[in-house]
Design goal:
Metallo-beta-lactamase, Chain A, eight-stranded mixed beta sheet
């Protein structure tokens, strides 16, 4: 197999029950409970292991009233990956549910957009509304990695390895990046919070936490252009991902799914 073809996995580590109306700017007419899922993603291939986002730990879960199903490290081990051996972490953005567990990958280099670091350490953090999804400790930990020469900055689109590119999307967080991966079924886009749920993309709706509604909506177009089809982008928080993609191995159902094979749609 050519060295630019990679395997991609979603590792679900937590979930949260909430009202459907909480998922959309302007709410939702259906007054019912729903849930969102929390994931990290894994890209495996000839160029090493890339983990996309680092999730949150038990302490952060308690502080924010979330429930961890299985810690992020356990999900990676279920895939045969030792966190110590992870070479690269791609930080899509620095929100608390994506940038915790900051000591889990002691040997990884962290890939982040210039804009996201500037956003999370600059004047916008003086606004409670914009600061809310960030944890001060996570941001400090990333700054420490900069000073330890462990961060690689990207500005816009960049190639991390053959078949793996990052793309600045912005919108939800000012410097959010999505990841495009060449796989045996075409280009899969790990959107992360570039699109939270399939319904956001399909109905042109927006999750309430957002730096720019306009950039979020434009970001959906970019994500769709980068993906080989509507069935090739992976939203950041949709529980449906676990239903439509097969388990990575028998026994990992609902926990670790394989994304480089066709979904059931
Ligand atoms: Zn986010
Ligand atoms: Zn998120």
């Amino acid at each position: 197999m050519s060295d630019d073809i990679h395997e991609v996995f979603a590792v679900r580590y937590a979930s949260h029950a909430r009202m459907r109306s909480e998922n959309y700017v302007f709410g939702d007419p259906h007054d019912e409970m729903t849930s969102i899922a929390y994931y990290v993603w894994v890209i495996k291939g000839a160029h090493g292991t890339f983990v996309v986002d680092t999730g949150f730990d038990e302490k952060a879960a308690r502080e924010r009233g979330r429930k961890i199903i299985k810690p992020v490290g356990d999900g990676l081990k279920a895939l045969g990956i030792e966190p110590d051996h992870v070479d690269h972490v791609i930080a899509t953005h620095m929100h608390w549910d994506h940038a915790g567990n900051y000591d889990l990958f002691p040997n990884a280099r962290y890939h982040i957009q210039d804009t996201e670091m500037a956003y999370a350490t600059g004047r916008c953090m003086c606004h409670e509304m914009l600061r809310k999804p960030f944890s001060e400790d996570d941001v400090h930990a990333m700054v420490k990695k900069v000073f330890a020469y462990r961060c690689e900055f990207h500005d816009g689109t960049d190639e991390l390895a053959p078949g793996i590119t990052v793309h600045k999307i912005g919108g939800h967080s000012k410097g959010l990046q999505s990841v495009r991966v060449k796989t045996r079924r075409g280009y899969v886009v790990v959107a992360s919070d570039g699109c939270h749920l399939y319904s956001h993309m399909d109905e042109g709706r927006v999750f309430p936490i957002t730096y720019s509604v306009g950039d979020t909506l434009e970001g959906y177009r970019t994500i769709l252009k980068l993906a080989s089809s509507r069935h090739h982008f992976v939203p950041g928080h949709d529980p449906e991902v676990m239903n439509i993609y097969p388990a990575a191995k028998p026994g990992l159902e609902g926990w670790v799914a394989r994304l480089d094979v066709e979904p059931k749609v």
